[in-house]
Every structure is written in C-alpha cells, then in structure tokens.
Amino acid sequence: MTAKKSDIQRLIECCICCDYLTDVRETPCCHQLFCNTCIQSWLKKPTKNCPRCRSTTLTEQSLLKNVVVQRFVDNLQFPCPYALQGCSAEIARCDLLKHKRLCSYSPDKLANKHRLKLEESRNLLLRYKEGKTHITDNALFDLAKLFHTEHDYDNAKECLQMIKDQDNLQEIIILQAQIERDTNQYDKALELYTKAYSLSNSSSQRIELLTAKGYLLLKKAQYEQAKDVFTQAFDLLRSDDESPTKVELLNALGLIAKKCSDTMGNHQTNSKRQHRPSECVGFNKHDTDNERLVTIQQRERRISTKSAPPLDEFDIKMHHIDSSSITFSIPVLPFDVYASVTGTFTDWIERKMTKLNGEFKICIQILHGCHYYRILVNGRETIECHTNFGRVHFIYVNTNDQNVNNCLDQTVLSLHKLNIWTQEVNNQFIKSDQPPPPHIPPHLLNILLNQKLPAHCDPDVLPEPNTVMLRHLYALSIQNGIMILSTTIRYKQKFVTTCFYKPN
To answer: Do the beta carbons of residue 207 and residue 233 sit within 8 Å?
Structure first.
C-alpha cells in the first residue's frame, strides 16, 4: 500500500482547526490526532465525546501525547512567509518564528533598506552635481527609475535631464511620461506617450503605450478619444490572441461603455433608443414594457469564406424576455453560414444560435451589470460593428431592472381602480350549500380536573373553563398494525384536532 501526498497531509493536520498539528494529542478510541488547545476547547462542551467517532467519552487524562508525529511536523520544511518579497529560504516549522523575526525581507527591514538606498542615491546625485564624481548615462537612468519607484519625482526629472546620450530615447520618454502621469500632469503625459509611440517599432510595445494613453484619457473623462485609442490597440492584437492584454482591453472598453450608458440614461429614460452606426451601443434598460427591443445596425468588413458573397448590412436584435433573459437574433443570410454569440455572460464561450422562423436565435440568461459580447459567423470574428466602440457590443443592465415590479409603467398601473380589501369574505363568494362548522365533541364539554370541590358538586366534573387552553390526548389501540394518536387543543368553544398515523 502506497500513501499519497493527500493522506500524509491529512495525517499532520488537526481535524478541528484544519492547521498543522501543534502539541499533538491522540484519542484512545480512534487514534485521531488533534492540537492540544483545540481538543481542550472541545472538552469544555457539555458533550465530551470524541470529535470524530462520537462513541467514547474523553477526558484530559485519557488523551495520549504523540511525540513521533510532533517531531515529524516540527521538522517539515516551509517557505519563508516573505517569499513574495524575495526570500527563497526554506525553514523547519520549529524555527519558522525565529526566521520570520530575523528575515532581512521583512517589511520593516525592507523599508529601512529602501530608505538607506534612497539616501545613498541622493548623496550620489549631489556629488555628481558638485563635480566630485562621474556617473554614466546608464547610471543616471537607473537613478531616475529608482527615484520614480520611491516617489521622488523631482530628483527623477533632474536625472533624466542630465542624460546626454540619446540612444535610449524611447525609454527615457516613457519614464518621463510615467512621472508626469503620477504627478497628475495628464496633458504632458499624453504628449510624451504620443512621441514614444511614434518611435516604437514592435506591436507589443505599441499596444502597451496605447493602453497607457487610453487610461489617461479615461481619467480625463474623454471617453470618445479613449475608446478610439483602446480600439486601435485592440486591432493590433492577433485574432487568436488569448493573453491578459486582450482581457484588459475588453474590460477598458466595457468600462467606457458603462460611462457612456450612464450619461445616456440621464438624458433618455423611459424611451426606446435608435442607434445609428456612429452612436454608442451601450444602453440602460429603462423601457416601460417588459418586451423591449433594441436594433443595432452592424456591418461586416471581412468574410473569407469562398461561397459567401460580401454582406453590406444586417440587423441584430435583442429581445429582453424578462429581467434575466435576453434573446439574440439575426436574419438568415442568403448563403450557407452558421452564427454564434459569445460574451462575458458566457465566459467568452461560443453559444451556437438556432435557425428558427427565418432568423438565427438564442436565449441566454444574463445578470445585472455591464456586459459585452460579439456575434460570430462561421466561427470567425467576421462581423464588426461600425459604431464608436468597434467590434464589441455592450449592454448595461441596472440593478433595479431585476425587480419585476418595475415591468409596468405607472400610467398602466393607474388604470386599475384601487379597492379596500378586508378579511371578511363577500357573501356572493360563499356557497349556500356548505355544511355548518363542526361542534365541539361532547367529551370535551365536561373537563376532568383533579381539584378539590365543595360537597354539593361532583368532585370529578367541572364546567368548561373560559380562560385557559387545554390539550387533550386520545389514543387508540393498535389495529391492523397501525397506531393512531390524536391531540385536541381547545380554547373556549374553538378546538383543533390533529391525528397521527404510524405503522407498527
């Protein structure tokens, strides 16, 4: 029999705290291991049985100390808690606290190290300005990056101005743009990013520069320009690109669509929106009826199938069936194609559309929030929207759209006359042939109470009380293997009887 890693992991973990064992204690019944503090807290409960088998009553004296397992756990090698800061040491568990206290990558020691390095860099820059030492351009650039990292922007700018060699001009301009961005000088940063873009040759670097420029425009609330920049960066990606950069660009476009839809929703509420090819596709669902329709004109720029003639224009329709469902539909094209939809609501997994009644249709559940999607033809991104947002469409669903009470317009609700409703049922709804309500059983009219009474009264029978609630139990002998038990609760002249049937 071979023990797996998971079996060993369960062996050295406490079943109560699910952490590594500390001061191991073993139960005598099922030999389960626990931390001493965990099992002691368990024994303080009223039920002092075993936490695992629940069959044996445990005491503090009955617990066994397992030294072998404790020694094994103490000698396990663990990475340093500051591994993310750069420490690559692996320490035994028994020495972990000591190493954590003395580790040079702890936050306090790293902060002290950065402070000393920053002071040393400032002294080096001061000696260079006084002519007491010589520094190369590469060293000045490294100093500028260090000052920028430590948020010392004045010294960083001064180092960049002292660089004489212009071989790394593009890197210098990018660093200058980052400094201007961090000091909230967005206009200067945009100019520098544009200049660096003109010097760039690789697509990856251009995408990075366009992304940084788009975020600056987004901070300045210039959504149209930001959309153009992000779309330009998105067009530079390969069609089969699945990198995080693509996700970042799509998220940025979705954020812009949400901003635009919020702006449009403030000016155009309770009305249907007609989107021209040059208008924003993002919208708020504030229509008055529950069957809302938005028609988006789209245009195709690239269709590479041989049998497919060029397609100029077609309609994509979205029917909001309810607050959580959307139906996408496009007309059946004059050539043999298949269509599918993909978006954030499907985790970008393609969902094939069904040909029905002359249209490709699909109904998808959707939650509130900002969503973006694409329509694919023949499995390729061949359909592009000539709107301001490029090839991606956006829809924004408000939280209050999930409330079914908002489906009808107030004008429709006002057509119904309000009536006063009570708990009394109108006589016209009561059938005349209904049987009368049952009377109280005779054996409940006289109540047996064990109390002393005057001599002129029956000591066993009392008149029914009107101020107390009594419960009566009635049991039948077992017949045909069934036991019947009934209880009656009576208050004044009202009673409720409940019967219980149980097979023997």
So the answer is: yes
- Whichever domain contains 209, its CATH number is 1.25.40.10
Indicate the average pLDDT of the chain.
72
3-state percent breakdown (helix, strand, coil) of the chain, nearest 5 = 35, 20, 40
- Per-residue pLDDT, 87: 86
Q: Residue 470: which domain range?
A: 442-503
Which residues of 383-450 form beta strands (DSSP E)?
383-384, 393-397
The answer to whether 356 touches 276, Cβ cutoff 8 Å, is: no
For position 356, which CATH number holds? 2.60.40.10
For tokens 């996408």, the residue is 328
Which tokens belong to 313? Answer: 């224009």
Same-domain check for residues 224 and 276: no
Q: In whole angstroms, what is the distance from residue 290 CA to residue 95 CA? A: 66
246 and 280 part of one domain: no
Q: How far apart are CA 56 and CA 307, in angstroms?
A: 78
Question: Is residue 114 within 8 Å of residue 150, measured between CB atoms?
Answer: yes
Looking at the structure, do residues 122 and 174 belong to the same domain, yes or no?
A: yes
Give the 3-state DSSP-derived string for 82-132, with helices as H, strands as E and coil as C: CHHHCCCCEEEHHHHHHHHHHCCCCHHHHHHHHHHHHHHHHHHHHHHHCCC
Tell me whether residue 350 is in a domain.
Answer: yes
The pLDDT value recorded for residue 93 is 84
Say what the pLDDT of residue 393 is. Answer: 66
**Least trusted range by pLDDT, from 19-33, 79-93, 431-445:** 431-445
User: Could you tell me the CA-to-CA distances from 31 to 49, 133, 274 in Å, in that order?
Assistant: 13, 72, 73
C-alpha–C-alpha distance, residues 359 and 40, integer Å: 69
- End position of a domain, from candidates 16, 50, 74: 74
Per-residue pLDDT at 67 exceeds 80: yes
H helices present in 200-243, as ranges: 203-219, 223-235
In a domain, 166, yes or no: yes
Give 118-150 pLDDT, tens digit per residue: 888 888 888 888 777 788 888 888 888 888 888
Contact by Cβ (8 Å): 38, 23: no
- Can you tell me the mean pLDDT for 366-383? 69
